[in-house]
Amino acid sequence: MYWISLLGVNLLAVVALILAVYQERSAKKQITELKEIRLSLSTQYIGQFPDYISNVVDLIKSAKTEILIAYGQVTFGIFSYREKWLEYRTTLEQKLHEGKTVDLLCLDEKERRNHQIEQFGLTKKSWKEKLNDPEFKRRVDTFTKHYASEQTENMDGEILLNLLERQQKKSLEDYFRTAIKTEVSSPFAIHLWIVDGSRAIFTVPNFAEGPTEFGFLTSDTRLIQALRSIHIRQKRNAKASL
Question: 36 lies in which domain range?
């Protein structure tokens, strides 16, 4: 009742969206339905990961005072779309250099690793089977070229996860060192970026039929208030567990 009273019609639409994402059997059908859904005039579907990374970058570029982030992986898109990760990273670095507040929530090391194992489907397929996917192999090759000395033939899932974690720590300790950073031990049901309390992007993860996330851009004040409360609560819970 709390959520319904807080968000009214918009939240009912969000709940319906999330239920559709997790209950529908066909990924293609999900995408078709999501494209047709319009939560309100101020909330639009902006695509799947990693296509919406450009939208996130543009949102961050528009920040005047504050950026709130809740995303499991620090290195957003580094494996799937390296060029956009670099743009995302440098945009955040620029905002930090300008003195803007960046309040970053991410998973802790253990949960980041669990999230990547699930995302890559490493519990369901062997490394050799994964490399039979041309797109996955291309991404491994690109990642290896820039972040490892090992060749793809010498790589395996464990090495990949270790290399990814190395970049996560480098980002926390170097690129985003002046940000407010909180690592949490509970997976995020929704990921979010909020700028100046007036515009936000939120995404719904879906690993059931292939790793992806569905992204939405909103300027709805009630929805942003709810997303902001999620950020506050997750941060508070993380500190309480220390």
Answer: 2-240
Report the candidate in 39, 10, 42, 70 with the shortest Cα–Cα distance to residue 230: 70
Q: 180 near 92, Cβ under 8 Å?
A: no
pLDDT in tens, 58-112: 999 999 999 999 999 999 999 999 999 999 999 999 999 999 999 999 999 999 9
User: What is the tally of structural domains in the chain?
Assistant: 1
Phi, psi of 87 (to 5 degrees): -70, -40
Q: Report the first-to-last Cα separation within the chain, whole angstroms.
A: 30
Q: Give the other-Cβ count within 10 Å of 134's Cβ.
A: 8
Assign 212 to helix, strand or coil: strand
Instruction: Determine the Cα–Cα distance for residues 172 and 47; give it in Å rounded to an integer.
Output: 27
* This prediction's pTM: 0.81
DSSP 129-196: HHHTSHHHHHHHHHHHHHH-SS-GGG--HHHHHHHHHHHHHHIIIIITTTSEEEEESS--SSEEEEET
- Residue type present at position 97: H
Closest alpha carbon to 204 in 65, 24, 79? 24
CATH number at residue 71: 3.30.870.10
